[in-house]
Fold:
Amino acid sequence: MARLVIIGGAALLLTACATPKERIVYQRVEVPIFQACAPKLGEKPVYPTLLAPVATDVFEQMRTLLVERDMRQARERELEAAVSGCAAHPPDS
Structure:
C-alpha cells in the first residue's frame, strides 16, 4: 500500500513538471520614424552681374552673363540633388 502511494505521488509530481509553461517570446518590430528632410546647402552664391558696373562694354557683360549662367546651372543641380534625396525617402502618413 505504501508502495502504491509512493508511485502515485511520484506520478503526480512528474505530471506537474510536464505541463507546458507560458512562453515569453521577444520580437523586434521596426517602426519607421519621421525625420524632417533638411539637407545642408551652401551659401547662395554672389552672381557676377550684381557686382559688375553698369558702364561695362557689351563683350564684358556677355562674358559675365555666361559665367553667371554656369553658376546658376551648378546651383540648380545642387538643389535638385537635395530635393531628390528628400523625395527618395518620403515619410509614411
